[in-house]
């Protein structure tokens, strides 16, 4: 048996042993003041990992170096199950007196006063919560999720602004930076190396650079949109600020709205056309103003 075969077998055994031990410690019994995802998510991840590792194990025994591809592929696919287990273990909401300690799927922690948390949206599958311009969610089948709902169900929304999350702007900034780097590399090589573009390839490079430039402009547009876009909810009107910074005060009763296939609100006010993206915070509070039009 080769070194690679030995490594695959031992890694499979160790990974599954660790997942089962963690499951016994954290997934079988959840403390009464802790909210976690449904337990089946964790055990589904364990089952996926074990199945993939068994396939890898069976294909590894007495396999030649060329036949180890299936084992490596199966073991790599087991990473999906490991990811589900990691998401379950990371995600945690702890009720700590008058505060809520929230830890997201990727381990980032927040602490919120329970009195300031409100239900932004609630349907048959997910409850979307918000506090201090932060949004987080629990599924309907989360362990002890009903206890958290009882604590916050009567809290009122005191945030009257609809805004797009700044993470979208940071993601677009990253995409724009990558585009700038690619354009810079291509231009630098074209200027310093006269043989970089071979005969007949100039049109190809022009098309590639045009696509990169178009995507960079798109990223910049998204950043401007995120920074400028804002809807302020008032009693009888709302203030709508466009991506170019122009503000309109619009009465609720004078607009016609409808939902697009992607879920965003399409707003018609006279000859003007606006929209509100479903990913914006307080989108559902804004949507509730037009319930009589659905």
Give a concise summary.
This protein has 294 residues and is α+β, with helices and mostly antiparallel strands.
Descriptive labels:
294 residues; alpha+beta; 4-stranded antiparallel beta sheet; 7 helices; 14 strands; 22% strand; flat
Could you explain how this protein is built, in words?
It is a single chain. The protein has 294 residues and is an alpha+beta fold. It folds into four domains: 3-90; 92-159, no CATH class; 166-226; 229-293. 46% of the residues lie in helices and 22% in strands. It contains seven helices and 14 strands. It has a four-stranded antiparallel sheet. A four-stranded antiparallel sheet has the order 8-9-10-11. A hairpin with a 3-residue loop joins strand 5 and strand 6. Helix 1 runs parallel beside helix 3, helix 2 runs antiparallel to helix 3 and helix 5 packs antiparallel against helix 6 (202-228). The mean pLDDT is 82.
């Amino acid at each position: 048996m080769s070194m690679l075969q030995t490594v695959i077998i031992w890694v499979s055994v160790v990974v599954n042993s660790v997942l089962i031990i963690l499951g016994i410690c954290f997934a079988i019994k959840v403390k009464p003041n802790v909210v976690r995802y449904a337990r089946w998510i964790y055990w589904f991840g364990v089952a996926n990992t074990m199945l993939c590792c068994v396939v890898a194990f069976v294909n590894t025994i007495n396999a030649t170096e060329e036949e180890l591809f299936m084992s490596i592929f199966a073991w790599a696919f087991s990473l999906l199950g490991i990811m589900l287990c990691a998401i379950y273990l990371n995600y945690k909401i702890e009720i700590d007196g008058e505060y809520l300690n929230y830890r997201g799927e990727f381990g980032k922690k927040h602490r919120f006063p329970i009195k300031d948390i409100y239900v932004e949206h609630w349907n048959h599958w997910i409850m979307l919560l918000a506090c201090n311009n932060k949004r987080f969610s629990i599924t309907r089948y989360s362990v002890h999720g009903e206890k958290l709902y009882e604590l916050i169900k009567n809290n009122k929304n005191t945030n009257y602004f609809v805004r797009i999350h700044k993470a979208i702007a940071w993601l677009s900034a990253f995409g724009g930076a990558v585009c700038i780097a690619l354009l810079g590399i291509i231009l630098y090589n074209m200027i310093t190396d006269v043989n970089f573009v071979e005969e007949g390839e100039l049109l190809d490079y022009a098309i590639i650079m045009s696509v990169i430039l178009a995507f960079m402009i798109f990223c910049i547009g998204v950043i401007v949109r995120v920074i400028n876009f804002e809807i302020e909810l008032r009693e009888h009107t709302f203030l709508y600020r466009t991506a170019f910074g122009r503000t309109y005060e619009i009465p609720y009763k004078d607009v016609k709205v409808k939902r697009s296939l992607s879920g965003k609100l399409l707003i018609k006010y006279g000859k003007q056309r606006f929209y509100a993206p479903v990913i914006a915070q307080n989108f559902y509070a804004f949507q509730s103003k037009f319930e009589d039009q659905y």
